[in-house]
Design goal:
The structure is a homodimer. By secondary structure, chain A is α+β, with helices and mostly antiparallel strands. Chain A contains five helices and three strands. In chain A, about 55% of the residues lie in helices and about 10% in strands. The structure holds a DNA duplex (30 and 30 nucleotides).
DNA sequence: TTGACATATGTCGCTGAACAAGGTATAGTA
DNA sequence: TACTATACCTTGTTCAGCGACATATGTCAA
């Protein structure tokens, strides 16, 4: 599984934006969600999660707000910004193109020629 | 396009093994092939290509042999080994699982539950 | 009440893949 | 003569992800 580290490269921000785009959420819950949805294949570590969230906030794709529920630990809840929505769309498309390019090479297909 | 650098991470050896598995080929041609099949989306740079080939040879997945055609530059032609064939299968499966996990997270799907 | 565990946030230093930029050399072409 | 494409290679840099650690609270069992 250690190989998935490299496969993950560059995709973690996309995954985080995806999850946050559905509903505002805090870091720990986002990681748990990614973990569960991928059936534990994609494991977001803490040393990756928090710096990634900070970078996304710095770039303006998400905004964080502290929430202090009664009788619970403080959480920083992140919400997707408008710019973040656009960024997610861009990244989703980039992923699609990339995955399709991978299949093209692995499947031995030649690029499509216009008629 | 600069973002595809990160997406490529960890997939380059798989792409190289894929191309070589179809027919023995030399470095420069392998890169050209990947480039063309992906419609120039996946660009294998020389600073990536040659070290990657050396690593694959070191690990025993491919073997290189110098070929000196008449009136042409010498080339190092790489062939997939038996172990390399297994490795390629393993990597192809890993890619499939990873891509499907990505889709699961991005699509908001929950992991399938047994009945 | 003591310990273990899950939750929840964060930082710091390391590693290693991919890249940029450089090198060598030959064949063909303008 | 200069340029381009082919064909091989190395060195130093960069930075995403990770391991390991620190901190703190709520819950639950021994």
């Amino acid at each position: 599984m250690s190989e998935d580290r490299d496969l993950l490269r560059g995709n973690i921000p996309t995954l985080i934006l995806s999850v946050v785009s559905e509903a505002p959420s805090h870091g720990f819950a986002i990681a748990r969600e990614i973990n569960q949805r991928s059936d534990n294949l994609l494991q977001l570590k803490q040393g990756t999660l928090y710096p990634a969230l900070h970078a996304l906030e710095r770039d303006g794709w998400i905004t964080g707000a502290w929430e202090i529920p009664d009788a619970e630990r403080p959480r920083k809840v992140y919400t997707l910004t408008e710019a973040g929505k656009t960024e997610l769309e861009r990244r989703t498309q980039a992923w699609g193109k990339f995955a399709s390019a991978m299949e093209s090479v692995m499947g031995g297909k030649r690029r499509e020629q216009p008629i």
